[in-house]
Every structure is written in C-alpha cells, then in structure tokens.
Amino acid sequence: xxxxxxxxxxxxxxxxxxxxxxxxxxxxxxxxxxxxxxxxxxxxxxxxxxxxxxxxxxxxxxxxxxxxxxxxxxxxxxxxxxxxxxxxxxxxxxxxxxxxxxxxxxxxxxxxxxxxxxxxxxxxxxxxxxxxxxxxxxxxxxxxxxxxxxxxxxxxxxxxxxxxxxxxxxxxxxxxxxxxxxxxxxxxxxxxxxxxxxxxxxxxxxxxxxxxxxxxxxxxxxxxxxxxxxxxxxxxxxxxxxxxxxxxxxxxxxxxxxxxxxxxxxxxxxxxxxxxxxxxxxxxxxxxxxxxxxxxxxxxxxxxxxx
Length: 307
Ligand SMILES: [Zn+2]
Ligand SMILES: [Zn+2]
Fold this sequence. Notes:
Layout: E1 2-7, H1 10-18, E2 35-39, E3 55-58, H2 68-71, E4 104-106, H3 113-131, E5 139-143, H4 147-159, E6 163-167, H5 171-179, E7 183-185, H6 188-193, E8 198-203, H7 208-217, E9 218-226, H8 239-245, E10 248-251, H9 259-267, E11 278-282, H10 286-294, E12 302-306
Parallel strand pairs: 5-6, 5-8, 6-7, 8-9, 9-10, 11-12
Antiparallel strand pairs: 1-2, 1-12, 2-3, 3-4
Helix pairs in contact: 1-10, 3-4, 3-9
The structure holds zinc ion (2 copies).
One zinc ion (ZN) is lined by residues 9, 11, 34-35.
C-alpha cells in the first residue's frame, strides 16, 4: 500500500514518550502508526485482493485464522496476533506498508483518506458497543471525548439511543459534544450530583481515575466497559463500589472484524466522520504530530500524518 493518511493514537504517544505501551516494550526501534489508509500499489503473487489503485482502510489486528480464539470468532485476541506498530512489525508511519489481503477494506468513494483512517477508531468503538451488548433502550455514559469516545458516541447515536451523557475535562471537546445536543459534563461527579446513572459506562479516557468514576456512574447491575488502555498500566479501584452494585466489568481490545461494519456506517451516511476535527502534518513533522496529540487540544481529536 502507498500510505496516504496515518492518525496518531494515544498508544503511539505512549510508545514514543514512555518506550512502552499496553505492557509491550520494544527491544529495537520501531515505527508507529496503526490507524491508516492508502492505495493498493502491488499485490503479492497469487494474492486475492482488491485491484491495484483501490483506496483502502486497514483493520490492524492481523490474526492467524487458525487458533482456538480465531475459530471461535474472537480474532482480536488471536494467540498469534500481529499488529503493525507493535514488535515485531513496523507501523504505517512510512510511505509504503505491506498488509495481509484479509485486513484491507475499500473505502467509500465519498470518504477522504483521513476519514478512511478514522474507520479504525470507529471499528474499535463498534466492537466495544457490540461487546457491551448495547441496545437502543440502554442509557450510556462515555468517559473521554477523544476520538474513541466520540466514535462511541456516533455509533450509539445512529443506533437510536436517547440517553447518552459524556464526561470530558477539555473545554473545546465538550463544546463539540454539546453542539450535537448531547449532555456533557467536565467531571463524572457533576453527572452523579445531577442524579444521572447509566446502564453501561464506556471508559474511553485511558486513565486509572476514570475507571473508578465509571464504577460510580454505573447503575446497580450495570456494566463498565474499559476501552482505553489504562495508564498507569497497574490500576486500582475501590472493590466495594463494584461489589455492592454487582457490576460487570468488561475489557475491550482493539477492533474485531468491525472495519467492514464501520465502512458501511460511513458509506450509508449513518455516521459522518468529516465532523471529527483533525490537524494535518507531513511525515517529517511526525514528532510535532505526536506532541500535539499529547497536549490534548480542544480543537483537534486526531493528528494526521500525510506521507
Ligand atoms: Zn489506536
Ligand atoms: Zn488466531
């Protein structure tokens, strides 16, 4: 593939600043970038895939298709998973990248390459919503209005959910949510004080404190789904909150064959990714793109590197 857009994710930032992410420490230098789109420029011998020239997005959980997890349909927790940007595979912050044919999905003609790359975080959200078994009757709360939180919001909205509340400390990001007519607060306690509780709480902030907030926001017998990668990696929370309410806590990992569904949601116009604010950088300014992401500005949910 000729890479046309790569978005910077929080896990890229962690790898860049901390030298590890999600419990993985690379032993050698490795390039980042797993949210990307581009054009097919060549096919391997005997490979069946969309023809050269096709504009595609990529599901980065490259699974083996043969282990017990794959055979039970849980391809995102494949025992032999390969994920570009985690050892041993370089990521997409490059001009070209080779991808397995099963991972590429043609993007709608109407979508830009940036929207094509946004299909990956949308696929992560679609997987989390599916894993939590959300229906339109549920009330939900979303902690964190970054790209994953916002994609979760867009997924829930198009399902017809009417009771959605969002918690986001950054003002500009709250404004974006407010413009959609969705209830938004700067902290979980603001919602709790207003008597709001949710059947299902999505933790999309990737912060240890947000997990405890999620437990407080969930109604008795509710569900908390952890979508962000907890930071720090060892987390603690008060067990009694969860025990008294008999909460279900679910951990969600990446996306599970959900790029196709994400693509259909965009192609049908049910989700408009063009509304997500993105700031563009050239490949030689990748470090600035990472720093911009780390500063969590109010007017940008993703930095895009355009190689
Ligand atoms: Zn990501
Ligand atoms: Zn497998």
